[in-house]
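User: Just a sanity check before I run the rest of the batch. Below are the structure tokens for the first item. I only need the designed sequence back.
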């Protein structure tokens, strides 16, 4: 039996595998979502802190007035979904790198995905079911567009 060794400068021959490109798509998503999150977060900070009266103006009426607009609902929703997904993929990568035993890795991933699901579902519900004009709230706390 003779074994031939390829020449050092010969092209690398890839083996045919049926693997998916999940890791590649995850890598691309992390880069794209990171750039988009920078834009979303700085827009959020500018709207909340710079364009108005600063942090002292952020109260129930401010949030009610902001979330009365579908633009800001979608802005905050996209920021929530992207930040949670971006963070979850990052923590999943850390778990895969540092958890040595399969059982530990599985438990940590179940806890991670459970926390992700709870935060995304509750955050989405808060954004879409938020009532800027509750009937039993004091008038001075309500937004200016609420009926008396």
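Assistant: Here's the designed sequence for the first item:
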């Amino acid at each position: 039996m003779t074994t031939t060794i390829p020449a050092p400068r010969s092209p690398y021959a890839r083996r045919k595998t049926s693997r998916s490109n999940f890791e590649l798509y995850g890598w691309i998503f992390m880069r794209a979502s990171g750039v988009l999150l920078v834009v979303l977060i700085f827009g959020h900070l500018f709207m909340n802190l710079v364009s108005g009266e600063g942090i002292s103006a952020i109260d129930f009426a401010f949030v009610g007035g902001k979330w009365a607009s579908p633009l800001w609902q979608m802005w905050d929703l996209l920021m929530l979904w992207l930040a949670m997904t971006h963070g979850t993929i990052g923590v999943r990568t850390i778990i895969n790198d540092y958890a040595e035993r399969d059982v530990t890795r599985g438990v940590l991933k179940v806890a991670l995905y459970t926390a992700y699901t709870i935060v995304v579902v509750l955050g989405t519900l808060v954004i879409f079911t938020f009532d800027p004009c509750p009937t039993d709230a004091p008038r001075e706390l309500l937004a200016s567009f609420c009926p008396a």
